[in-house]
TrEMBL record:
Keywords linked to the UniProt accession: Cell membrane, Ion transport, Membrane, Sodium, Sodium transport, Transmembrane, Transmembrane helix, Transport
Domain of life: Eukaryota
Organism: Clavelina lepadiformis (Light-bulb sea squirt)
Protein name per UniProt: Sodium-coupled monocarboxylate transporter 1
Compositionally skewed regions (Basic and acidic residues) per UniProt: 614-633, 640-649
Length: 649
């Protein structure tokens, strides 16, 4: 379509009203639950961090969905589709397999053990060193992730309002910290539910309006074909190509498995439900919601290309960063509809508020359970809640600092997150996998595998961010300014790295021949690894870290005396396949020699009494530890009450 100059790129009064209304609503939810649970008997960690372990599956499912997709989906995904084509549609499917794995293995495990911190499991299965190492890395990683999710909507707000980027970051992180610290998990979940509605409304409105303006799906499809962007069925198996079906679906699913199964935010939602059944229902609601919102965001990116087919806003210098694309799109298509730009920015902010509030609440619980209570087990319930609230405020401050520093990084937000988090996610997922499914793994193997693989992956991740990727591996598709008003950019050339095999028409990309030659010359100065190891798709970083950790851990375990499966405690393992319909020989094979677990039905009456007593007193395993020898002969800190408590329901 032809380009038309928008009348204004700033919020109208109606936009401000809608946006501020969303922020006020989020704050009021936090205030409501702070007042509602102000009684002494409500000041418990179960109530503050787990919503009393009795929350409904629907709000929990919606909360899990928006916590996982965040503003990275609302703003980052359209940018990916705009620059790399329809192949990124597969991002929408990357939450399916992780949720299946969660339903089969992780939800039953954490409910069986009644954990407070997901990393408690690593102490039970291995020892306290493994728990604290993985917990500390997870805290660092989640703070970095929250910082980026704050930065993204701040970009949008900065592009549409007179607010500076720094003030946008301060407002975003401040609101998150306020209602999370006040209201705890209940405020987080119910605010997430409200924000899910806003995200659906804002996302659909942006998609429908843009498609209507470009002339419908057929016109959008034609524009994608002209731009070489109908690459949805790119099944190239080359692992160095950054975005193909395989890199997105396989790499994204591994990343999603770590996010959904092995992080504190997900674990707290698993344990905030009434039962395993409710947690699984919440998981199903979560995956349906995330797929829909992700698809809407990705197709919006495709529609944005059709809208800006002849006048790229970045090259035309209407924006300064790629990830401001959606902000300028909303400003353009809703310039004649008061309040709609405010609705979409509210949707993007809702994603950030949900992710950051979940992170702050979860990290507060994680720091308390893994680092404070082991040193001060005598803390009262009110003292624990107070520490969690103070920790939440400090975490909000750190999140803002990270958001400020992200401004200096290049590339798209999706690639930056995947590159750096991949250095941590793979080894973390591998340690949990080794603990749950591989009874031979010992403490030395788990520690060595995690440390060695993490160091290697950090080196790869940092190198990838510093040096970038070869342009022919990135395969960023060309854009043009030929339809823009008169612009200073007079040089037009064909992108030397654009593969024309999937395009029906010649696409011109506004970049001078001199710039192209300079880029090629600069790449010749790169280290040799830039063209080999560092060229690996950023989406495979997590998978590589996972594989390295598994291999190293098993080899070290064998070399240092692997655990005997027959001596393993069955409470800490999950068979790959467990179904009473199967023959006993088959079931025994998939237990890998681990003894069969004792059934809840054998101890149901006693267990239920202890479970109720445990929750009413808000006891914690770390506060009533007794050293004992487990089946493998190693020391473990679990009480007799805990041993009964963890029989599976």
């Amino acid at each position: 379509m032809s380009y038309t100059e928008p009348s204004s790129s700033e919020f109208s009064t109606a936009d401000f009203v809608v946006f501020v209304g969303m922020l006020v609503a989020a704050a009021l939810v936090g205030i409501y639950y702070a007042i509602k649970d102000r009684r002494v008997e409500d000041q418990t960690m179960d109530n503050y961090n787990f919503g009393g372990r009795s929350m409904s599956a629907i709000p929990l499912g919606l909360s899990r969905a928006v916590s996982y997709i965040s503003a990275i989906t609302m703003i980052g995904f359209p940018t990916e589709a705009y620059n790399y084509g329809a192949v990124v549609i597969w991002f929408s499917a990357t939450s399916i397999i992780p949720n299946v794995i969660a339903c089969l293995y992780y939800i039953p495990l954490v409910h069986k053990l009644s954990l407070y911190s997901i990393y408690q499991y690593l102490e039970l299965r291995f020892d306290v060193k493994v728990r604290k190492l993985c917990s500390a890395i997870s805290i660092f990683r989640l703070i970095f992730y929250m910082g980026i999710t704050v930065y993204l909507p701040a970009l949008a707000l900065n592009a549409l309002t007179p607010l500076s980027l720094n003030w946008s970051i301060v407002i975003t992180s401040g609101i998150c910290t306020f209602y999370t610290s006040l209201g705890g998990m209940k405020a987080v979940v119910w605010t997430d539910t409200l924000q899910t509605v806003i995200m659906f409304a804002g996302g659909f409105a942006a998609l429908v309006k843009t498609i209507v303006i470009v002339g419908g799906f057929r016109k959008m499809w034609d524009a994608l074909e002209r731009g070489g962007r109908m690459n949805i069925f790119d099944f190239n198996i080359d692992p160095t190509l950054q975005r193909t079906f395989w890199t997105i679906f396989i790499g994204g699913s591994v990343i999603g498995t770590q996010e959904i199964c092995c992080t504190q935010p997900s674990t707290q939602r698993f344990l905030s439900s009434k039962s395993v059944r409710d947690a699984r229902i919440a998981s199903i609601i979560s995956v349906v919601s995330s797929v829909i919102i992700s698809l809407v965001a990705l197709i919006t990116g495709c529609a944005a290309y059709a809208y800006y087919e002849n006048c790229d806003p970045l090259k035309y210098e209407r924006i300064t960063k790629k990830d401001q694309l959606v902000a300028v799109l909303i400003s353009d298509v809703f310039s004649d509809v008061p309040g709609m730009a405010g609705l979409f920015v509210s949707a993007a902010f809702s994603g950030t508020l949900s992710s950051v509030s979940s992170g702050i609440n979860s990290l507060g619980a994680l720091i308390l359970e893994d680092f404070v209570i082991p040193r001060k087990p005598q803390l009262s319930n009110r003292e624990k809640v107070l520490i969690s609230k103070i920790t939440g405020v400090l975490l909000g401050f750190l999140t803002a600092l990270v958001a400020f520093s992200v401004q200096t990084l290049g590339g798209t937000i999706v690639s930056i997150i995947s590159s750096i988090n991949g250095a941590f996610d793979g080894p973390l997922l591998a340690v949990f996998t080794l603990g749950i499914f591989f009874p031979w793994t010992n403490v030395t193997g788990a520690l060595m595998g995690h440390v060695v693989a993490s160091i290697f992956m950090i080196w790869m991740g940092v190198s990838s961010v510093i040096y970038g990727k070869p342009a022919d591996k990135l395969r960023q598709l060309p854009t043009t300014t030929k339809g823009c008003p008169v612009n200073a950019m007079n040089y037009t050339t064909i992108d030397p790295y654009f593969n024309m095999t999937n395009s029906k028409h010649l696409i011109l990309w506004n970049r001078s021949l001199t710039d192209s030659m300079n880029m090629d010359s600069a790449q010749d100065d790169k280290p040799a690894l830039f063209y080999s190891l560092w060229s690996l798709s950023f989406l495979y970083f997590c998978l590589l870290g996972f594989i390295l950790t598994i291999v190293i851990s098993l080899l070290v375990s064998i070399a240092t005396g692997a655990n005997k499966p027959s001596d393993a405690d069955p409470r800490y393992f999950m068979p790959f396949i467990e179904n009473e319909i199967l023959p006993e020989k088959v079931r025994r094979f998939f237990r890998f020699g681990v003894p069969e677990d004792i059934k809840m039905s054998d101890h149901s009456e006693v267990t239920e009494k202890i479970r109720l007593s445990f929750r009413e007193d808000n006891c914690h395993p770390s506060s009533t530890k007794e050293s004992h020898q487990d089946r493998s002969g190693k020391q473990s800190s679990v009480t007799d009450d805990d041993r009964i408590l963890v029989f599976p329901a």
